[in-house]
# Entry
Amino acid sequence: MGVSEVPKVFTPQTPIWCPGCGDFGVLAALKKALNDLEIPPHETILVGGIGCSGHIHNDLLVYGYHSLHGRLLPTAIGIKLANPRLTVIAAGGDGDGYAIGGNHFLHALRRNPSIVYLVMNNGTYGLTKGQPSPTAQIGFEGTKEIPFEPILTALSIRSTTFVARGFSGNQVQLQFVIKEAIQHANAGKGFAFLDVLSPCVTYNDTYAEWRKSTVDMNADKSFDPTNRALVFERVLNTLQEGKIPTGLLYKGESPSFESMQLKDPASPIATQDLTPAGKIEEFKKLIARYR
Amino acid sequence: MSSTQTTEVSEPRVVHLEDLKVMVGGQGGDGTLTVINLLSHALKQIGAYTYDTRNVLSRIRGGHADGVLRASVRPILSIGDGLDVLVAFDEEAVEVAREQLLDHAVVIYDNSHSQLKTVLKPTVKVYSAKFSEIAGLELKKTLLKNTVSFAVLCRALGLADQLAEEAINWRYARRGGDVLQSNLQALKIGFRLADQLGVKPSISFPKTEPKQGLIQITGDEAVGMGFIAGGGRFYAGYPITPASEILEYLQANLPKFNGVALQAEDEISAINMALGASLAGARAMVATSGPGQDLMTEGLGQAGMAEIPLVIVEVQRAGPSTGMPTKHEQSDVNHVVFAGHGDFPRLVVAPADASDCFYLTVDALNLAEKYQLPVFILMDQALGQNTQTVPEFDFSRVNIDRGKLLTQADLNRISVYKRYEFTEDGVSPRTIPGTPDGFFQVTGNEHNEWGFVSVDRTNRAKIMRKRMLKVEAAKKDMPRGHVYGDQDARVGFISYGSNLGPILEAMEQLGKQGVKTKFLLLRSIYPLLEEVQEFLESVNTAFVVESNLTGQLAGLIRREYGYADKIVRINKYDGSVFRPSDIVSQTLSQLPRNGGE
# Structure
């Protein structure tokens, strides 16, 4: 490995977010988690979405991809299947993930690929100046629609293996759930879904409200995150009390997508030797049935 | 036996054909394509080149369905004109085929449900029997009527019983004992019926040694094989007629080469999965048809803007919207050339037969990585789904060129790595994640050389030119077309895809009528190459032949080169392929008075 004295590659940028934006907290916790877990930066790819949150991949030294709006998950799944050795983190917004990308969210949960999906959830489309997103509270910008609850949706899909929620106003908890998510995915256990309450200080400043209403479910020792039915009930009850459940909410087991799709996950497609020379006899077998 | 009847024939007369056309028709689910498949295999064993086509409805069962098999002593890529034999499982099939039946035609009719009412030429010989009823009674499975009828068909064509039996073994051996045995039994019943009907060979096809080194394959399967040979290891698709066979082929075969072929939740997901896999270093492809390409257009622009290599196969069907899913058309030329907002680079290649499908898929994979852009393989329903006889693919001709893909060793030799570095040919070196010093930022936003979002005016103008420069640079590597026919002819055809076969046959017929022609078969649709201008310069009239209403290819050529006075359109858009006679008649009716001289 060549170590350069001067930077050989890009220098991470300074975030473009408004002062006080929740996404600063997410970036800080993510950096801390990657450092603490000693994840090699060159074996990490951060897939960003479109919107304010979709700048996050510019702000740390890992491989960065700025995906199409709503398409983080298919992209991240393609990357993971091509090279399961990589730490693949998809990090987007709530409009990106729960509105335009909603279909991909359901199928990612169903397929269970070993990637981290971190949603910076602020209930609004900040970059386009404050329209309500699917998670907007009733009354925000006049919306009458019942907010989408991604935690319940994730719990309802039978192959879901990891569900957590953090709050960018609670760094200790956020670092904990991000680390748990990365470890889950990197152990090949499947899809690590992490919803992070990340307030938009300009259009939907919910800091004070969320500080009051968030409940750390892990604080209650009777809360068993491996008991799906119990988790569903507790989460639902908490929501009905007007509170927001946070913490490591669910951990289950189900085969990972790459274990189903890849014949030999230890030998990544991305780094295969493609020269046909040694494979001619194998190719000829393909022809046999057409003779 | 009372269930059989034969028209009175004065005396046995055998018609010798070097070009045989057989239709098998009935309702969807009747197994018409099975009979075509069996006969195709049997005829190949006696040295025939075969070409077969399907005409089915977009439903699993019911509705008229037929298959046409053409066999010839020379290579063919068209269903030709006329029918020598018809196997009909119902009256509707006879009605559909009636006008095409030649004077010497033989009709094998299943009268289980009704006696034949359609009036046919008196010279046509008809054998009627209750195939379905007999199969139901004796084998407890009416569907086996197809194998029963196959036996009678083979007898009418004078094919040895053993040849028929071999075909059954070839098709059903893999399916296990019961299926094989019941089909062999059905064949025996069919031979017995043929004896009872007094079937005599009335049409014969020359028997020679089977030709070595030939295969019978569809264009879709050939694309799949080309993808594997060309180093393709990641495929994502969504079921769509007439491209699903590529998905099915790769799901069955790609895992053998440690690759992945998966079915996504929609085409939007499929193309983004492929973009992700390509970004990570895999050779990636998607395949679809017009409606799926609508959804993939978003990802197409991303591939162009972010400079991610990607191959997209577009097997055209009759549009617009859902259109006629199972029917042939070539009306997506504009779609693949112009789809997407903004200006971005792309390439479009167009194979003409199954062999070309194989080699151009390899080329497309190389072009995509060498120029880091989306490359379309533009096909059509007939090319994708019709089985053709072509020379075995030569795997030793496969060459893999991954372009400017940097390894860590390469990076050790340079001081700075910028993903979108400005270069002479517009192609910037790329890396794959996992490379220690290869960090990149890849984005669909406008960006600077580092891959950081930028709206700087100077950078914008420069990087737009950089990307588009790649189309010019790629011209030298784009597949050249072929010119067929009389070099001195002043009447020309320009076309692509499955029109190759019908045009070659039309040229032969026109030649017999004293009209000298030549033909430029295009294999690069975008960009068009200088060959088009050279060809247009060399003729007085250029007929652009394509299966659509508005003349999309003709429009593309006029847009690029002009020559409005020379370009004349030949179009067909009823959902069926061109027959040679369509091209002959449209040529003659539109030929200038002076015969194009």
